[in-house]
Structure to design on (409 residues):
């Protein structure tokens, strides 16, 4: 039997108390292991209406679920003994080298997650060289974002009925050095996001009794919201009476302002006023992918708007292979929606995508820990991508080929 002194010594050798971390953001992030953890922290910190606006999808949210769960139906056929001591994750998109195939998709209203909004996301993306898509419905303007980011920037276009307004935004994006345009083609009308319907959610958030209670139980967000300049649709301020200076229902706004007559002719029109690559964002069939190639665009984003538009639309990852078989090599294929790990990037590339784009992950990161949360997220995707490449025997992005994955039946 050990003597009391020996027992104390043994106890001492195994007990180790962590020093208390004074910085709250570091403390928060130290307990986060993946995107789902970021989501949980964001859920705790954001008012419920804001969290649901970011997190939710259309109708029964089946497409939202499948966007992510479909990745789990893919299995690797890893190769071994391939000397993976040196990895290169860089790739080329529209003639430019980027450090990895990860892109940040455009999301509107980023300032509802954190007051720095699009500026914070753009700065973090620029530090890592990740192309960042700024939304037409952004809460920081084209110029404000360009002033803080010398990284690659794309501008996402919604087609207002007022084409003069669209043209002026495209010209501003060109003048501010944005490299590509993404034309969103899946939003003829707004999808029915029933979490928002239940709450009567508006943008910017309207203050009512329920919101006040929500604000009181989420004090950090409320303080941040109240001590910063009001949230507006920064790209259209002054252009119409729904520029965000008053709260509007998003569905009403989209359904009255956006042009439902948008057609392939408009793609031609956009090409006539923009001198760089155009990506059609929201392609959901092989037939439209072929038509996109015929229209002469440089890229397509296989996307259903993160499950926020047409419920029961196909999961982007399930479209990659059939689309790549038809049009691979003729147009850049971006898989957009549901990717939550570096391994998801590898799966999409193996099936034939050129890049993978994410939206909610960086919004959760903003809600959980602001700009530092986005830095954390970028590192998480990067290390996950590298680890998966190493474990599956791929040294470069070009090594990630169709033989690497199979669909589990
Ligand atoms: C809160 C939120 C706002 C969005 N706003 C826009 C937008 O303004 N324009 C757009 O084209 N897509 C928008 N999207 C769609 C994203 O660009 C992207 O397709 C989607 O987030 C990808 O799915 P993921 O969130 O699973 O990564 C938004 C998505 C979310 C979650």
């Amino acid at each position: 039997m050990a003597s009391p002194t020996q027992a104390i010594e043994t106890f001492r050798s195994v007990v180790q108390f962590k020093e208390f971390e004074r910085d709250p953001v570091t403390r928060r992030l130290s307990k986060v292991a993946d995107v789902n953890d970021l989501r949980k922290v964001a859920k705790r910190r954001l008012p419920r209406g804001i969290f649901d606006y970011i997190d939710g999808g259309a109708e029964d949210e089946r497409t939202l679920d499948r966007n992510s769960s479909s990745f789990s139906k893919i299995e690797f056929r890893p190769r071994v003994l391939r000397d993976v001591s040196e990895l290169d994750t860089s790739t080329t998109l529209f003639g430019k080298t980027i450090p990895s195939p990860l892109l940040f998709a455009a999301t509107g209203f980023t300032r509802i997650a954190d007051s720095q909004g699009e500026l914070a996301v753009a700065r973090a993306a620029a530090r890592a060289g990740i192309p960042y898509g700024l939304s037409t419905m952004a809460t920081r303007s084209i110029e404000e974002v360009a002033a803080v980011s010398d990284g690659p920037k794309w501008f996402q276009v919604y087609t207002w009925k007022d084409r003069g307004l669209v043209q002026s935004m495209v010209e501003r994006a060109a003048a501010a050095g944005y490299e590509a345009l993404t034309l969103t083609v899946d939003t003829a009308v707004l999808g029915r996001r029933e979490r928002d319907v239940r709450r009567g959610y508006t943008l910017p958030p309207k203050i009512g009794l329920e919101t006040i209670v929500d604000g009181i139980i989420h004090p950090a967000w409320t303080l941040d919201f109240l001590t910063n300049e009001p949230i507006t649709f920064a790209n259209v301020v002054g252009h119409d009476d729904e520029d965000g200076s008053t709260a509007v229902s998003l569905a009403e706004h989209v359904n009255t302002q956006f042009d439902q007559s948008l057609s392939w002719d408009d793609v031609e029109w956009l090409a006539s006023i923009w001198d760089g690559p155009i990506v059609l964002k929201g392609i959901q069939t092989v037939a439209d992918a072929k038509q996109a190639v015929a229209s002469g665009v440089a890229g397509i984003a296989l996307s259903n708007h993160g499950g926020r538009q047409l419920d029961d639309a196909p999961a982007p990852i399930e479209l990659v292979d059939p689309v790549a078989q038809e049009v691979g090599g003729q147009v850049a294929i971006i898989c957009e929606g549901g990717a939550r790990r570096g391994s998801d990037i590898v799966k999409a590339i193996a099936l034939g995508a050129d890049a993978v784009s994410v939206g909610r992950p960086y919004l959760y990161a903003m809600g959980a820990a602001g700009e530092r949360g986005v830095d954390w997220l970028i590192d998480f995707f990067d290390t996950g991508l590298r680890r998966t490449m190493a474990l599956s025997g791929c040294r470069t992005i070009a090594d990630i080929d169709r033989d690497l994955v199979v669909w589990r039946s």
